[in-house]
């Protein structure tokens, strides 16, 4: 009788410990973090032609970080996950006498996506109407924009085209 009680006790103890084990809290590196807005610079006369302006830089308002083109024709822009807007200065002919700065505000809605307990949440974005607001009208070198993909969930394709 005592051997049977011992076996049941040992089995119950084993099941109790097995069921109370926590899964590893490891975030796999293949999981993509919050995606950036991918921007293309396009010719205003032919929306299908990619065009890189000379002396061109982008600076996020409130920082000294200069953002540049990554793979020749696309520019990743990090969006502020704590706000519904992010503002950038688009600088043409930087450092020259004819330097021209257009300040653009990008309007979006953030949607949080739960990945898992280890990785937590990541933000996805949906561009709102109007997607871009020009904050300093005047001598504008940017002529307009085209929404190429209004939902920002990955960085595989461009989301916004700037016409100049």
Kindly describe this structure:
With 164 residues, the protein is mainly beta. The protein has one helix and ten strands. The strands form two sheets. A six-stranded antiparallel β-sheet has the order 3-2-5-6-7-9, with no helix packed on it. Strands 4-1-10-8 form a four-stranded mixed β-sheet, with no helix packed on it. The mean pLDDT is 85.
How many helix segments? Answer: 1
Whole-number total of structural domains: 1
The total beta strand count reads 10
Question: Approximately how much helix is present in the residues?
Answer: 10-25%
* Shape assignment: rod-shaped
Secondary structural class:
mainly beta
End-to-end Cα distance, whole Å, is: 88 Å
Strand content: 35-45%
**How big is the Rg?**
25 Å
Low-confidence stretches: none
Mean pLDDT across every amino acid position = 85
| H/E topology pattern | HEEEEEEEEEE
Largest sheet: 6 strands, antiparallel
Strand order of the largest sheet: 3-2-5-6-7-9
Attribute tags:
164 residues; mainly beta; 6-stranded antiparallel β-sheet; 4-stranded mixed β-sheet; rod-shaped
């Amino acid at each position: 009788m005592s051997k049977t009680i011992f076996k049941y006790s040992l089995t119950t103890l084993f099941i109790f410990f097995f069921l109370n084990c926590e899964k590893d809290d490891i975030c796999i590196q293949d999981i993509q973090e919050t995606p950036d807005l991918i921007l293309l610079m396009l010719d205003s006369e032919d929306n299908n032609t990619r065009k890189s302006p000379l002396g061109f830089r982008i600076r996020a308002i409130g920082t000294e970080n200069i953002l540049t083109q990554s793979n020749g024709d696309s520019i990743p822009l990090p969006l502020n996950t704590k706000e519904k807007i992010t503002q950038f200065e688009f600088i043409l002919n930087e450092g020259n006498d004819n330097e021209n700065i257009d300040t653009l505000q990008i309007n979006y809605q953030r949607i949080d996506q739960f990945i898992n307990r280890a990785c937590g949440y990541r933000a996805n974005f949906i561009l709102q109407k109007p997607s871009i607001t020009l904050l300093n009208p005047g001598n504008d070198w940017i002529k307009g924009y085209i929404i190429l993909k209004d939902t920002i969930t990955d960085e595989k394709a461009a989301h916004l085209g700037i016409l100049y």
